[in-house]
Amino acid sequence: IFKFLGAISVDLGEDRIKPYLPTILTPLYRELNSNYAEQDPTLKNLSQEIIELLKKLVGLEAFSLAFSSVQKQANQKRAMRKKQRALQTVANPDIAARRKLKRHKNKAETRKRKIESLRPMYKAKRHRSHALKDLAMVE
């Protein structure tokens, strides 16, 4: 898709691509700013190359305006999601409590795995699953 966006940009030319610049930059910006564990470095390099191509094609000023608008929009979405999570915590405390319990449980399991990897002789005590007890704790 990134190669397609680059090809379309070159094909349309400077004047016809300007209205579509924010739409083209959105996935490129998302790929550049992502911090997933299983991220493909070739995608990141490709998005950087296409951004450089667009910068040369459109000019620095038009590119900067479009890029800053995409950046601003992404930050607004991130802030809105954060605000919604905070409001949900207040509005639905039971769901928030469940989420918190799950997070703490995952954190403990991660800590045990880390200790086991650092010290192979040590076996951490695993939480035995008792379905009825787990349900009683959540509800």
Automatic annotation (TrEMBL):
Coiled coil: none annotated. It holds the Pfam family UTP20_C. GO terms for cellular component: 90S preribosome; small-subunit processome. Residues 1-116 form the U3 small nucleolar RNA-associated protein 20 C-terminal domain. PANTHER family: SMALL SUBUNIT PROCESSOME COMPONENT 20 HOMOLOG (PTHR17695:SF11). This is UTP20 protein. The gene is Utp20_1.
